[in-house]
Amino acid sequence: MQELDSPHVFFRRVIFDVSPTECLVAMEDEHHYFVLQLGHDGERITSVASTARRTPWTLCPEAERQLQAFVGQPLRQRIAINLPEIDSKQQCTHQYDLLMVALSQALRPGRREYVAKVRGAMHEYRHAELWLDEEKLLDWRLRGTVIDSQDQCNQQDLRSIMPWADEQLDDQMLEALFVQRRAVMVAASKGFDLDLIPNAGVAMRARAGACFVFQPERAEQAVRIVGSTRQDVEGVGDLLVGWE
User: Fold this and answer.
1) Which of 22, 121, 171, 226 gets the most CB atoms within 10 Å of its CB?
2) Phi (first) and psi of residue 78, to 5 degrees
């Protein structure tokens, strides 16, 4: 695959801070900043609260009510790639993903941190890396959505990888893939000036039905929050500063 030389670098940082009764989750990238507080009893989720500190659309914070569908969900050693009883399309994609990982993280008290980095974020050829607590777990070159790597994911397509991954990958690799897949997909938006889009309804052709905001009944009321995309992120240390 051709060498990648691009100044366009996208970062996403996710922190899990788990106690015997609570799982705090914080995620920030250029477009989003969420803090989730999950109560649990060691077996199931007992409560979910969300603070949307920065979002691209005005209606994103309203998706918190959809997160209540996770109350009662059992904690699990291995993440699920989907939950048939919860419609992901009616959720905020990013908070839904965080909760899916938190169902596993909540069983392990302590603090853990994922860092995703995508170089060439807006181009066909990209370099995507993922660290967990400073240990690099994934190192991919991508052409479009096809992975070129030295791990089991080699030549898999991110658009269709999850059923294969659920059968083939161990618990840690499956979770890493779940986290990195979303980061790579969000990174592609680095090439767009979202401030030019007045509301989510304008983008419906490409995103119709994709998440809570992009449902036809509310997309036009989801107004763009101009200036919400950070332009000053030069490294992971610029994200989740003082979130606790």
Assistant:
1) 121
2) -115, 135
Distance CA 38, CA 99 (A): 9
Residues 132 and 13: their CA atoms lie apart, in Å, by 10
Contact criterion met (CB below 8 Å) for 101 and 95: no
Question: What tens digit of pLDDT does each residue of 14-39 get?
Answer: 999 999 999 999 999 999 999 999 99
For every residue of 159-225, DSSP letters joined together read: TTHHHHHHHHS-HHHHHHHHHHHHHHHHHGGGGS-GGG--BGGGGHHHHTTSSSTTSTTTGGG-BB-
- Write b or e for each residue in 190-229: b if 16 or more Cβ atoms lie within 10 A of its Cβ, otherwise e: beeebeebebbbebbeeeeebbbbbbeeebeebebeeebb
Q: At a CB cut-off of 8 Å and minimum separation 6, what does 175 contact?
A: 79, 101, 104
DSSP 111-128: EEEEEEEEETTTSSEEEE
Where residue 90 falls among pLDDT bands split at 50, 70, 90? very high
Regarding predicted confidence, which is higher, 139 or 5? 139
Q: Is 72 helix (H, G, I), strand (E, B) or coil?
A: coil
